[in-house]
Amino acid sequence: MGGSLTLNYQLNMRVCNGGLFLSAGRGMHPNRIITSYELIFVRSGSLDIAEEDRQYRLGEGDYLILYPRRRHWGLSEYSDNLSFYWFHFYLETAEESLNDLWLPQYGKAVRPETVSELFNYFIEDQESGFSYDPFKQMLALLIFSELTRPSADKERVGQAIVWASQAHTYIRMHFAEQINRALIADAIGCSPDYLGRVYLKVYRKHITDSIHDFRIKRAAQMIAEENETLAAIAEKCGYPDLRSFRQQFKLRKGMTPKHYREKYFMAQMESQYHK
User: pLDDT tens digits, residue range 164-200?
Assistant: First the structure.
């Protein structure tokens, strides 16, 4: 579930609380789903964190935007020297996230000391007791602006991340159709070979694997929640024949669709019996 957040200086953005987290080498980032965006910027140490199907290792100067209504959690105990800035914010409408200034969900600041300085202003304003919302929003936008500051390498890497993210979104929305790398590349305006390389680098899997992952995830939900035949489920999830459906399902779930349905049914029966 990667992506890029697009920001505009005229955004109707509501900035909430923020702070500086200092680790004592104990604890782990909570497993939760929140309703706001959260920006995390690592000042020192490292932070291992996951969001849905993606894992991140953040080091000094790295940032990550956690999206609303997506589950995220820590992957390991906090390191002794970990410190990171954070704040929560809302975008008032979905359309407002698609304007002029794109910001990849994950990246590294070109000038981390400037980002830290802006966060310190943000925290000082918040703790003053006289915090002014437009000023907080201005500081937040300055932080985002600094995170998008280009360098020669960053521009090249940033474009690669954008293409990979667009491909991932396309797969998520069209996995039930007969799609492939060439079709996706044509849809987003990128070379198929180059898209394959950058997608593998960003998501650590091939495009074809992502297509099957989305299909089988949806198929498993339908098997558990709906009473349709396996052939109908296979077709609705992008598999025109049962053979390939069974093969991909077993590869990802460790059992055939039929056994998965039987196992789920037995678990439901046992749950009802013990109530």
Answer: 888 988 999 999 999 999 999 999 988 899 899 888 8
76 and 109 part of one domain: yes
Residue 53 and residue 187 share a domain:
no
Q: At what angle do helices 181-188 and 207-225 cross, to 10 degrees?
A: 100
- The kind and range of the H/E element at 41 are strand 37-44
pTM for the full predicted model: 0.53
Cβ distance 26 to 95 under 8 Å?
no
User: How does DSSP classify residue 32?
Assistant: B
Structural domains counted in the chain: 3
Domain containing 162 equals 154-204
From 107, 122, 149, give the residue that closes a domain.
149
- Per DSSP, the residues of 86-138 read EEEEEESSGGGGSSSEEEESEEE-SSHHHHHHHHHHHHHHHHTS---HHHHHH
- Domain identity same for 143 and 10: yes
